[in-house]
Design goal:
By secondary structure, the protein is mainly beta. It contains 3 helices and 15 strands.
Length: 220
Amino acid sequence: MKIEELTLFSSDLAAQEHFYVREMGFPCVLSNDYRLVLQAGNSRLVFEKASHTHPVHFAFLIPGDSFTQANKWLRQRVELLPFEDEEIIDFPNWHAKAQYFYDADKNIVEFIARRDVEGKAPATFWAGEVLQIGEVGLPAQDLEKLYRDLNTLDYLPKYDGDFNRFGAAGDPQGLFIMVNPYEKDWFPTGDKVMPAHLRVRGDFNFEYNNEMLTAINNPI
């Protein structure tokens, strides 16, 4: 599944630009008082100005065997969020390894390397090795309803989870991570899952605001 663009909202665009462009090295496509657009491989990460926001979760997909190089690179730029004292967290059922950190808005950002996704580890890792945005978190009390709503846009296969407290839908290249805020906190930090406001464009085109999904009629 292709996630070509993810739009989030930020109360401090300058802080997010400093974090992603100056500290992380993501290419900046556009920056003004209202909008920040970053290139993340085949995806764009967009931040729009808002007076009030809640942190969300999303992931960058990186080449399947590049998690060690990515870890060395990340440790020079962010404070990683470990789980049981491990910075690189193994997900054997997903054939993946992941590492997490906060951005300037306390969004829980993930670098995930999947063995199901092709790509060789570079000798030197940098932001340009990111393949695309690979996951978007969607909080909802009724995950089955959210899943049905997404399927009104296009067919979306289930990937993992019981769809009561947690459900993942999509494929190894792109997943929607659906979490019931009354049953589960964000992994690995234990942060409370808050209502999300975001937009997604790609194979699925929608705005999601406090559990309400609205189709977007002007995809990329």
